[in-house]
Amino acid sequence: MNFLLIILLSSVFTVIFITFHLLFLYFFSFKKTIQILFLFVLSNLILIYFTKELEIHELFYNSFIINFAILITYFHFLLLITMGFTLSILASFKKKEKLLYKELVKSYANGKGAKWMLMDRLKKIEKLKIIRLDKKITLTPLGRFLSIILIFLRKILVVRDFG
Amino acid sequence: MYPYLISIFFFLLINYLVTILVKKYTYEKFFMYVMIYFILVNFINLIYLESINFFTFQVLFSVTILALYSGLHRSVSSKIMIYLYLKKNNISINNFYKTEFKEKSFNKRIKILTDNGFLMKKNKNFLLSSRGKKYLRIIKIIQSVYRIKSSG
Questions:
Q1: Are both B70 and B122 inside the same structural domain?
Q2: Cβ–Cβ gap B68/A157 under 8 Å
Q3: What residues of A are in contact with residue B84 (Cβ under 8 Å)?
Q4: What burial class does residue A28 get, using C-beta atoms within 10 Å of its C-beta: 0-12 exposed, 13-18 middle, 19+ buried?
Q5: Is the ipTM of this complex over 0.90?
Q6: Residue A14's pLDDT is what?
Q7: Interface test with B, best of A73, A118, A128 (most B CBs within 10 A)
Q8: B59 → closest Cβ in A69, A122, A139
Q9: What is the distance in angstroms between the Cα of B72 and the nearest Cα belonging to chain A?
Q10: What is the number of CB-based contacts under 8 A between chain A and chain B?
Q11: Mutating which of A86, A126, A133, A146 best tests the B interface, going by the most B Cβ atoms within 10 A?
Q12: Which of A83, A107, A123 corresponds to the end of one domain?
């Protein structure tokens, strides 16, 4: 019974959370993905209020963990539709039905091109002080440390290839 | 505490064995493995442990591990970092773009899309298959709902 109640609570959270996100997106132009953290807290506060009213607040702690898993999934979904590499290649066919290889490279990301994508990612990790960027790309000590962690995690999960 | 640690240990051990047994261990196959493991572990939990905490832990663990694997397997940023670390040297942007990014990332994605039946190649031209068109329609709808003008 408790299993079902927790799933029900998390389902209610999902509905509130996504509705809030869409409302804030349309009425307050919430465009940064990180802003959804505010909506996550707000939705959980509403859920706490209802669980207290219904005297099932003990179940909220378990539901919160599932809500956090939902946040990770939703965050991942948003990243996929805004920054997805493969998805953007498919989206290049929005304007033209047939594309030569060179046209496909140029029309990537609404005409910004494939090199723009690489530069965009490089600038993002430069902002985080992971690399130094002039004409050459150099790893900073922080970048080297994070790379070791990434290699270690790849070994643990046996990720052999890049997709 | 022990069931949590044992479940993580067995997850990693079985994953290692699966990578040996299965050819071309892609993200899709890892996803299937996580789903099967999640169902089996929670089936055992439901019969023997009956612990809600263990169930919620498994949900969070499965989602986190899928997000992590996706990042390690597909992220362009992580690829750049690992490449630079293993090369132990700096590299020019143009050189990296031509030799690594275009060849090993961009072309590889096009090959994956072609192999999976999303793209077709006809006389040097790339065009969407009916499956690709269907997915493009879905992408368009989702992007318009989330007010995304261009992705990449």
A1: no
A2: yes
A3: 131, 137-139, 143, 147
A4: exposed
A5: no
A6: 94
A7: A118
A8: A69
A9: 7
A10: 209
A11: A86
A12: A83
- Is A114 within 8 Å of B42 (Cβ atoms)? no
Tell the burial category of A58 from Cβ atoms under 10 Å away from its Cβ (0-12, 13-18, 19+): exposed
How far is it, in rounded angstroms, from Cα A73 to Cα B116?
A: 24
Look up the domain containing B149 and give its range.
118-152
Per-residue pLDDT, A65: 93
Cα gap B106→B79, rounded to integer Å = 13
Q: Count structural domains, chain B.
A: 2
* Residue range(s) defining the domain that contains residue A11: 2-83
Q: Is the CA virtual torsion A75, A77, A78, A82 positive or negative?
A: positive
Whether B1 has a pLDDT exceeding 80, the answer reads: no
A78 with A24, same domain?
A: yes
CA separation for the pair A25, B143 (Å, rounded): 13
Closest residue to B113, CB basis, from A86, A156, A158: A86
In a domain, B127, yes or no: yes
3-state secondary structure of B120: strand
Residue A163 within a domain: no
For B90, the closest of A66, A90, A138 (CB atoms) is A138
Domain boundary (B74, B106, B137) is at B74
Task: Select from B125, B92, B79, B110 the least CA-distant residue to A137.
Answer: B92
Write the pLDDT tens digit of every residue in B86-142: 887 788 888 888 888 888 888 888 888 898 889 888 888 888 899 999 998 999 899
**pTM attached to this predicted model:** 0.87
- Whether residue B76 and residue A97 make contact (CB cut-off 8 A), yes or no, is no
Residue B52 with chain A: CB contacts under 8 Å: 2-3, 6, 62
- Coil, helix or strand for B90? coil
Question: What's the CA gap between B64 and B70, in Å, rounded?
Answer: 10
Residue A88 lies in a domain: no
